[in-house]
Every structure is written in C-alpha cells, then in structure tokens.
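Hi Prof. W.,

I finally got the Major facilitator superfamily (MFS) profile domain-containing protein prediction working! I wasn't sure whether to trim anything, so I left the full sequence exactly as given:
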Amino acid sequence: MNQPSRLATLYLLGFALDLVNIFIASVAYPDIGRSLGASVATLAWIGNTYLLGLTLVIPLSVWLASRLGERRLMLLALAGFASASLGCGLAGSAATLIVWRLCQGLAGGLLIPLGQAMAYRNVPASARAGLTARVMLVALIVPAVALCRPARRVGRCR
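And this is what came out:
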C-alpha cells in the first residue's frame, strides 16, 4: 500500500470512528441509564458532550497542526481518543463518563480535519473523486451500522 493509500485509509478510519461515537451512545442509553442510574437529561449530556468536544476542537486543528506538525498531532489525537475510550469504558459514574466523552470528542475532533487535509493533499487529483466517493460511503453506512443494536435473534436490529 503506497503513502496516499495509507493516508486515505487512516482518514476513513478516523472519520468512521467519529461517526460511530456520535451515534453509539444513543444505542447504549438504556444500558448506561440502568448501570449508572442516569436520568434522561444526563444521558443527553453523555451524547452531547462528545459533539461539544468535536465542535470545539475542529476550528483549532489547523493552528495545532502548524504548531505540532500534522503527523505528531494525528498520533496524539489517536492516543488521546484511545485513552478517552478506555476512560469511558471504566467510568463508574455518569459524571465521569461525561468528562471522558468530552475528552473523546476533543481528540476525535482532530481526526477528521487532519486526516482530510493529509489524505487529499497526498492523493493524486485523478484519485480524489474516488476518495470522496469512499468518504460518502462511510458517511452513509457507519451511522446505520452504529444504530443497529444487535438483538437476541440474528438478523434483527432494534
């Protein structure tokens, strides 16, 4: 796999991670509510803090990349995202989960603009339409899959 293909794949994976995390909390709300004793309002915060972090950091991505370098910032964002995901999984309270979701959104918010800039800059002009088609495919498929909660019976989503 050549450099442009690796960058495009990294971008698509980062984009998919962000999309999954936007929708995944809503699928898990019943379980989170039961296990953490969270109210409906608290569950909304669990979902919305990810979007808040994502929205806050995207405008800063160009500035951060110019200070730290794109590659270093991408690695930091991936490490931060993984760490925050672990924190979410280990959260023992709704308040802790909200904080980790914010951290997850801050790290995840860097993946889309950084990956997009790196991929499109390195993909030849003749291949950019194909990359854009793959991005749109990911944007269509990932939310549908993320919202599909496996039912006890195979082949059903609820």
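The CA atoms of residues 148 and 155 lie 10 Å apart. Does that look reasonable to you?

Thanks,
D.
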